[in-house]
User: Fold this.
Amino acid sequence: MEIKDLGEFGLIERLTQILSIKDHSVLVGFGDDCSCIDIKGEKILFTSDIQLEGRHFIKRLIQPEDLGWKVVSVNVSDIVACGGEPKWGFISVGFPKDLSVEYVENIYKGIKKACDFYKMSVIGGNTTASDSIFLDLFLTGKTDRFVPRGGAEEGQMLMVCGYLGEARAGLEIAMEKGLNNLAGYEKRLIKRFSRPTADIHLSDRLSRYASAGIDISDGLVADLYHLSKASGVEVILDKNKLPVSPDLKRYCQQKGKDPLEYILYGGEDYKVVFTVDKRDTIQFPECKVIGFIGAKGEGVFLKDGSIVKKLEKKGFSHL
Amino acid sequence: MEIKDLGEFGLIERLTQILSIKDHSVLVGFGDDCSCIDIKGEKILFTSDIQLEGRHFIKRLIQPEDLGWKVVSVNVSDIVACGGEPKWGFISVGFPKDLSVEYVENIYKGIKKACDFYKMSVIGGNTTASDSIFLDLFLTGKTDRFVPRGGAEEGQMLMVCGYLGEARAGLEIAMEKGLNNLAGYEKRLIKRFSRPTADIHLSDRLSRYASAGIDISDGLVADLYHLSKASGVEVILDKNKLPVSPDLKRYCQQKGKDPLEYILYGGEDYKVVFTVDKRDTIQFPECKVIGFIGAKGEGVFLKDGSIVKKLEKKGFSHL
Assistant:
């Protein structure tokens, strides 16, 4: 059997069984946005995420500084989703030998800017020669309370900050047109893909109020399926409450596409979707309620007025 | 300017300048085998090391279980060199989609065996599809006292456990003959390359007695140059005290080569070379004194009776 027959999550399930963990200081192991260990009462979060040339980015379609910024942001987003603040990063990089020093320095300038913005440090690293560029960041963080995927309860509200689906539109524009001669809204959409900013402003409140949280990297619906499964509850999105970005709207009008498809299945948003008790929604005035938690069970549903339909468990697809 | 013009260490120096660290809980940043942070008085070590197909291993020349074992061992060796014990690992992996599930499971069985052997856990990970296999392990550890590269002092003894140079011979045999129809000594030498064991038994004593330590991955001389530079001292190897493995001797006889070249420049040994006061050498009865620390300065020298010559700063080379 090959990996593709088993799928990413089937494979991970098998592998984590092999690596059974017996250490009692490990509070959370595989299966969430972060792992969590106890060091003298401090809850330390661990996560890692890679940017691999040809897989996660195409060199001519992203500025090196943005790439450095992005690899930090995608990791910070995992830390934030668990209610944490990023602290110390360790970066493993691979570069072709004929890559220009200036290019690499610009990547590191982006990393440094992101470190300053998120108030964290990259404290060490490992360098290797490789055929294609990769940046593999391992990031630790701290949290007062770990916010898991599996804590959502019936009747709680589902919230998110800002717009979804823009990153996917930005990627499409960059793939089609490159980075030059773009309209303002096209540039903004591309920036959502190439230079995302994690919801760092939510960290502290998530650890205080959120029952569950997940970083949207695969797409809203795909990631909510993880939350649904981990929590053992149905998740209901309210179609009329999903915020539609004006830039995405304009892009979709131009292309004859439905913004909803981008919002539900876009991916790479690096925003945190989370659940809270209804009374605590006021703690997040800058965020929007986009749905709620239904009965015990599993599945992600879209409610449009009185009609509720189950959504397909998939990443982005063209209509 | 391209990376190859600057060299690995020149590049790292530039990049670490960009990432200036201001966090006071960072006790050791770039430039040693591990970084070290203070979490409520605990000294936590960070390191990472990758195994990249085509660069660090050739798939047909290593068993997947050995590969899993090796990626753990090479990281543990960095932790041990700083006087630490490994605790929690986080693994980032890339696999081609047509790789067999069995192959990947065998890698993880090797990782698990190594975790049990070194009394540590891999507590999380990240999976991505990639053209070639990579295993990037980030490993944390704990130490009571950080053993740096820069602590060696004049008159101290230089020690190492076991034989050097075998891994390089093993790699050569595997490259030339493959893994089948091998003599016993050839199999043992290959095992040194493909399934190295870190000096975990030294951790505790290194943190108590060693003034400096470094993991031998690039080769004895190349890594001693790092120790020499960091400590600001000359390092003198005693030719007649360097232990020569019987297997390496046999291989070199067969090939008409000089074992000394392998011992000095072999690389991939993953043994710790360390310095201690003369009176403390008895704390390491299973290790051998292979030299001593000379005057303030920089350089690695080979003493043969009364003749002392400076050794070239290089990795492995054929005579």
Notes: Chain B is about 35% helix and 30% strand. The longest helix of chain B spans residues 64-81.
